[in-house]
Amino acid sequence: MISLAGRDIRHEWGKYVFTGIGLGLLIGVTLTMAGVYRGMVDDGKALLDNSGAELWVVQKETLGPYAEPSSLNDDAYRSILAVQGVAQAANVTYLTMQVRSAERDVRAMVVGIASGEAGTPGWPPYLVAGRQITRSHYEAVADVASGFALGDRVRIRRNFYTVVGLTRRMVSSGGDPMVFIPLKDAQEAQFLKDNDAVLQSRRRTSENPAFNRAGVPGLLDAVITSQSRNPYVNAVLVRLRPGYASDDVAESIERWQRLTVYTRPEMEGILIGKLIATSAKQIGMFLVILAIVSAAIVAFIIYTMTLGKIREIAVLKLIGTRNRTIASMIMQQALGLGLIGFAVGKIAASFWAPFFPKYVLLIPGDTIAGFFAVVVICMLASLIAIRAALRVDPADAIGG
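User: That's the sequence. What structure does it adopt?
Assistant: Structure tokens below.
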């Protein structure tokens, strides 16, 4: 009995194999798109894991500090430390900006960490080279994805920082590498106005008639001094004592400090459900489009190959071959094409994933789901060719 798939592989192996390779590259793109989404989710979870926090205290009624701007007074952590169940509370600032080193700019999230030691919330949990920050100014720890090396001098706003340590997988929810600097320096970089703006602000304050009429000694100097300070942070990272529930401590802080507090599940919901929701929908649309295109390609190729074997199919019908047997042959041909494509796609995705600028996470679950999706798509795509084959008249075998 003639095997249509076997016949194509023997006599038209080039067309069949190269068609499978082309389909495989399309499948590889599909697997990569799924990996990009998984990578975005993993980046968000890594951001939360590496912060070392169990609670995030932010400005009231905001989704800070990652999804929205948040501003707190930098002495708020003292009151939070007094709340029952709180073991550690540390200020932190986050600012996404261009960090310059020599002639190269790097998009990075600059993190201001409070003074302390390794293990303090907000600090990088481990280093792959160098040491942690030990000075109160002008030292930095950078993620290796930034491309910085130990000893490099990087510029953040007006100041230069020496890279004294390197860490890994410390990234923002958008995949930007992190650069850690002392909190005071980060406050200055984020909140301090430039010199011209400070001078103009002082001039407007000194020319304000209200201050001239007040006649209070030292009042103007006090206002000018307050304008030069940076008493703000983006969030307070909290670590709990053993035996305390995060929901209970969060409720207590919200009640007495009049601030908004997020637990780990709530912060994950913000990052995944809100911050990357649009990107997830866009990737989902691409996956649907790619699946439709893959099905169309398989359907067209199998239909074309089937039409090229009308005489053979007519002969099979003439000798009494059942329609079920003919249909299974065509479906085997489609599945063989899909298996070649899936193997090529998996290899291609694994090969080019490390070269993507964003983190691509290829997980076994997506690979298995992709395999079954390819099988289903190939089976559905073969129905058009099967319908055409079953309509062949056995008399064509004699008339041809």
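The mean pLDDT is 84.
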